[in-house]
Design goal:
The chain is an alpha/beta fold and 437 residues long. The chain has 14 helices and 19 strands. It folds into three domains: 243 residues, Nucleotidyltransferase, domain 5; 86 residues, no CATH class; 86 residues, Cobalt-precorrin-4 Transmethylase, domain 1. The two termini are 42 Å apart.
Amino acid sequence: MVKKITLMASDSKPYKRGSSSSHLFSWDDIPGNDTDRFIEFLKHKFSIDWITTELIEKIDNDRVIRASFENKSFYLRLNDEETHVYLKIDDDRADKFDVKEENGKLNLYGSNRFTGCLGVCLSFTNPVVFKENYLEFFSNYPLLPHRKVIKTYDLNNSFKNNRKDLLSCMKLFVIFLAKNDVHINVVFTTFDTNRLPDGIKKYGVGRSPTKTIKTLKFLDELNNYYSYIAPWKVSINEKFRNIDVQLDSFNGEHTKAWSELCSFNKVNVVLKGDLCNSFISSADLVAGYIDEYLALNHLHLEESTIQEAINDCFNQYNDVNFQTFYVGHEDLDKIVPHENIKINLSDYYKRPMIYIIKENFLENENKFIENSPLWDKLLNFSFEINSGIKYMSYTEDPKYIKNDDYFIYLGEKGKNEAEYIKNLWCQDVNIVSLNKI
C-alpha cells in the first residue's frame, strides 16, 4: 500500500563555484588588524590607489565603511541579514561580497560566479513520527547539545577541518531519511545563455512595465525565491493537492508558479525554519550534502551528478524514493515574475507565530540575543510548537497578529509594550518572558 504524502518541506541554495577558499578580510577588523589587507585589496582589484588608513571610517552603527578624498569616494554597506556586503564606487562601479561569521567575526569572501539553483523538496508520509526520529538521530551527534534542530552551517563549523567526515555525516543523514520513508526530490536550474542572447523579460502585467535583465542576473534573483520553486515543480509533476507545504523565509515577487502552488496546496512560511523546523532543516541538509559532494568531486550541477551524489549513499538506486526535476527554459513563463510586487510573507506565516519584543537599548541587539544561551531555548520552543520566529516590527506586524500567537519579551520595557499591543489590537495572544519558556 502506497503511503499518502501529507507534508512537503523545501530549502535551496545557490550553486556557486570558482572563488578562493580564504576570506578577503574581516569586517570587524576594519579599521584594525585587516586595514592594510583591505587597502591592498582595493588597490589590486579596483585600482583605488588614493586610499590611506586615515581616510577610512566606519559609520551607521558599524554597518558602513567609507572613505573619500577630493572628488573620489567609495563605501561598503553590510546588509541587515549580515550575509552580503555591497560596494559602491564614485564612478558607478559596484560589487557584492559574501559574508560568513567565523570565530565570532564577519569575514568577507569574493562573491562566486552564480551559475545555477539547487533546491530540495522532501515529502513526508508521517511527520509526527519523523520529528521524533529526527531528534534521536542527532542525539548521536552532540554537535550543539542545547539545540534540537541542526542546519548545514552547524555541520560545516563542526567539521571545517575535515570535509570527508562532513560528507560522511551528511550521507548518514540521507540514509536516515530513506529509512524513514521520506521522498527526496531534487530540483535544479541552469541555463544555456546562448539560447537567451537578449536576456530574460520580466513583469509586463498590470502597471508593471516590462524589464529585461541578463540571464545570470535572473539566476541570482531566482535563487532568492527558489525554495518555493522546488515544491511547485514537484507538486505539479506529482499532481499533489492539499499538501501542507512548509517553506523557510524567502524574498521574491509574484509568479505563476507561486499562484499555482498556493492554489492547490496549503503554504506555510516558517521564519528561521532551518533553525527551528526539522522538516526544513532536513531539506537544507540534503541540499548541503549534494553541494558538498559536487564540490569535493569537482562536478557540475546536472541530473547525472545529482543522481551520483544520492546513489553514493546506497548500494542500489532503488533503495530510496528519489527523483530529480529540471526547471529551465520551458518553465520561464512560470518562474519569471509577472508583476513588480513582492510576495507578502505575513499572509502565510505558520501559526502560532512567535514575535520577539526587543528592549531596544543595545546596538546590534539581534546579534546579542542570538549569541545568548536563551536563544537556543527559544529555537527549541519554536520547534515544539511548530512555529517560526520574528523580531516584532511595529510598522509591519500588528495587523497580522492572530489569536494564540506568542509575544516573547526580554525585560520590563518589552513586557509593557507587549501588553500595550495586545490591548490595542484586541488579540488573545500569549505574553511570555524569554527566561520562562
